Amino acid sequence: MLAIVHSCAIVGLEGAIVEVEVDTARGLPHFAIVGLPDTAVQESKERVQAAVKNAGMTFPHGRLTVNLAPASLRKEGPAYDLPIAVGALAASGQLRPEWLDGSLVVGELSLDGSVRHVAGILPMAALAAKRGFRQILVPAADAAEAALVEGLEVVAVDSLTALVNHLSGVKRLKPAPPLRLDLTQEPTGGDFREVRGQEHVKRALEVAAGGGHNVLMVGPPGAGKTLLARSLPSVLPAMSLTEALDVTRIYSVADLLPSDTPLLRARPFRAPHHTISHAGLVGGGSWPRPGEISLAHRGVLFLDELPEFGTRVLEVLRQPLEATSSLSAGRGVRCRSRPTSCWWRR
Q: First and final CA of the chain: distance in angstroms?
């Protein structure tokens, strides 16, 4: 019997729909996952089998084949545990496949059947709403983040047993309420009001903040360059909802979003160490990840002790500064990255 469960992958900063096809057949016990899975996805075989057993259900015997389509898209991370488990139960007749129509399923499973947090929920939920899905089933820890997307029913799942009861109608889970968006910016870092003197420097920084210019600060140690740079976000305007969602999306993909803060309201301030690699600064890698430039999107990127940065690192800054965007190395995935100002110190 064949069952299909819809899930989602992250490519760069965007989501991509993945069909989890689960097929059961007679034969010796065998569990195979195909479709360009990484090690974390391959290891889901052990997590899914233990979770299904400990949740009080029967894992299908015989041959079980899971295909993650499209096969040309590489899959990474444990977010496919929950859709694979649900697909296995549907393929073995313990769930009816039509109960999953219009639903997107994402989540990592513990061995006891509980559902854990996964990264990138916000772009996944945004894609689900765009593609016309009726609801998204996400870990309970990520429900508030998914609720930022309008027009999508968000169901918070804390365990595999609760999800099975929800789908079968035994005990329905209540949809997560829409998140009330409060864009009041919380004070972080320093404040210009705490800086005495340096009136000409503060005026220059205010002009740079107003026009989104880059600044090179030169001066002796102790002149207050670092303090002034860290105080700059206090004079930047509060982010609009669109800007806040842009920043939150990046931090969600990078798995840097605080668990108690589904929406980032303060403009980011990034100050990478001078030993950072070019991939860490610009982004990219074999599995594309946002770099420090992308993490400073809509905020401030501060490069302290500029001459200490590697030559190659400084060279890769030219294109982002000119084009106000960064291409993840080797994959052609465009990552939004437009910090308001770059702060260099020598």
A: 66
| 121 shares its domain with 204 | no
Q: Report yes or no: 250 and 217 within 8 Å, Cβ to Cβ.
A: no
Q: How confident is the model at residue 222 (pLDDT cuts 50, 70, 90)?
A: confident
H-helix or E-strand spanning residue 171: none
Is there a single domain that holds both residue 113 and residue 255?
no
CA distance 128 to 102: 9
The predicted model scores a pTM of 0.87
- C-alpha–C-alpha distance, residues 140 and 127, integer Å: 19
27: CATH: 3.30.230.10
In a domain, 113, yes or no: yes
Q: What is residue 83's three-state secondary structure?
A: helix
Q: Treating both helix axes as pointing N-terminal to C-terminal, what angle do 160-168 and 81-91 enclose, rounded to 10 degrees?
A: 50
Using CA atoms, how far apart are residues 142 and 125, in angstroms rounded to an integer? Answer: 11
Tell me how far CA of residue 144 lies from CA of 139, 241, 282, in angstroms. Answer: 10, 16, 30
- Tokens 């291409």 correspond to what residue? 327
Whether residue 181 lies inside any domain: the answer is no
Q: What are the residues facing 203 on neighbouring strands?
A: none
Whether residue 313 is contained in a domain is answered as yes
Distance, in Å, from the CA atom of 197 to the CA atom of 211, rounded to the nearest integer, reads: 23
Render pLDDT for 229-273 as a digit per residue (tens, 0 to 9). Answer: 888 888 888 888 899 999 999 999 999 998 888 999 889 999 999
- Burial state string for 261-272 with b = 16 or more CB within 10 A and e = fewer than 16: ebbbbbbbbbeb
CA angle, 298 then 299 then 304, to 5°: 145
Task: Spell out the residues 6+ positions from residue 245 whose beta carbon is closer than 8 angstroms to its own.
Answer: 122, 148, 263
- Token pair for residue 272? 């990478």
